[in-house]
Specification:
Elements: H1 3-6, H2 8-52, E1 58-62, E2 65-72, E3 77-81, H3 89-94, H4 96-100, E4 105-109, H5 127-140, E5 147-151, H6 153-164, E6 171-175, H7 185-190, H8 198-204, H9 207-223, H10 232-235, H11 238-241, H12 244-264, E7 275-280, H13 289-298, E8 302-307, H14 314-317, H15 319-336
Parallel strand pairs: 3-4, 3-5, 5-6, 6-7, 7-8
Antiparallel strand pairs: 1-2, 2-4
């Protein structure tokens, strides 16, 4: 008599682990296949997004990075730097680009990894590193001491430019920027796509559909308490924002934002350039009093514009006032020469 015949339950116990292993292996295989299919679909969707939203401007290679930028007009130079998630199109939609181009040479640059600009692996792409790249782009474009306008994360980059390369700028206009470190849950939530290996899996599989689903709520929060303009989502290239590459750029920016503000905050008082600061009193993204108002107290030669009942998108709320301040800062910069 065999062991299985004498102890039939023993055979069952030996077969069970083998059966479990088969089921686990099958589940892993199905999951891997599903993720691979999702990744392939997201890559195709990214290519389709780029086909439907072709470059509107020109390209310039700086320090090995291919940057896309818009250019229009003649006169004193102005450089526009967009915020996180966004692209240079934001300044077109707000009307700031067109208004400024009537009297200025205006350059709106897609920051590395956004729109149609590259973001090579290697650098951590902190605001300081992006500022250094844009400083070289300013030189390559032959812009003499431009006024730099930055919105949101772009304002942090503009501040890094002013601190690290003050002789290259005429002045800065800061729109709803982030300047002092705070505890931010959104940074924690945005961090996973920036994690090596895990982040690569996420941004090619789950992050694009999740980003597409959450983007309308994000935009609503940025404009709140005002309504999102009817034509904003029609004109904004939302599909570009949820490509794997731009998701990585947004995540990395979120991760570097707080430590960069912490590193820069002790240098603000040394700024000697003309500085104009904008904030919405109802800004739910970065806050008003703890950021822009505090910066105004530190930077003595700055002017502060508090827009009542306005959220994070101050340049959409009052583009004419933004242009007016750029004109004023530009005149002050010319007088300082």
């Amino acid at each position: 008599m065999t062991l299985e015949q004498r102890y039939p339950s023993a055979a069952g116990h030996r077969a069970a682990p083998r059966s479990t292993a088969v089921r686990v292996g099958l589940a892993l295989g199905v999951t891997a296949a599903a993720l691979a299919g999702l990744a392939a679909a997201n890559v195709l969707a990214a290519r389709e997004a780029e086909r439907r939203n072709p470059p509107k401007g020109r390209f310039l290679t700086v320090d090995g990075v291919r940057l896309h930028y818009l250019e229009e007009g003649e006169g004193p130079p102005v450089v526009l730097i967009h915020g996180n998630v966004s692209t240079s199109d934001d300044f077109l939609i707000s009307g700031v680009f067109e208004r400024l181009s009537r009297t200025h040479r205006v350059i709106a640059i897609d920051r590395p990894g956004f729109g149609h600009s590259e973001r090579p692996r290697g650098p951590s792409w902190t605001p300081g590193e992006q500022a250094a790249l844009l400083r070289h782009a300013i030189g390559r474009l032959g812009l003499e001491r431009p006024v730099v306008v930055g919105h949101s994360f772009g304002a942090t980059v503009a501040m890094a430019l002013a601190l690290d390369h003050p002789d290259a700028l005429g002045g800065i206009v800061l729109l709803a920027g982030y300047y002092f470190p705070t505890k931010r849950i959104d940074v924690v939530l945005a961090a996973p796509p920036a994690i090596p290996v895990l982040g690569d899996v996420l941004r090619y599989t789950l992050s694009p559909p999740f980003g597409a689903a959450s983007l309308p709520l994000l935009v609503k929060t940025m404009f709140a308490p005002r309504e999102v303009p009817d034509d904003f989502m029609e004109q904004f290239p939302a599909s570009l924002a949820v490509r794997p590459g731009q998701i990585l750029a947004s995540s990395q920016d979120g991760v570097t934002m707080v430590p960069s503000a912490d590193a820069m905050q002790h240098r603000y008082g040394a700024l000697a350039l003309p500085v104009a600061i904008f904030t919405g009193t109802e800004d739910r993204v970065v806050g008003a009093e703890g950021q822009s108002s505090r910066l105004h107290e530190v930077v003595r030669q700055s002017t502060l514009h508090r827009l009542p009942g306005v959220g994070h998108m101050v340049h959409h709320a009052d583009p004419d006032l933004v242009v007016q301040e750029v004109e004023r800062v530009s005149a002050l910069a010319k007088a300082r020469v």
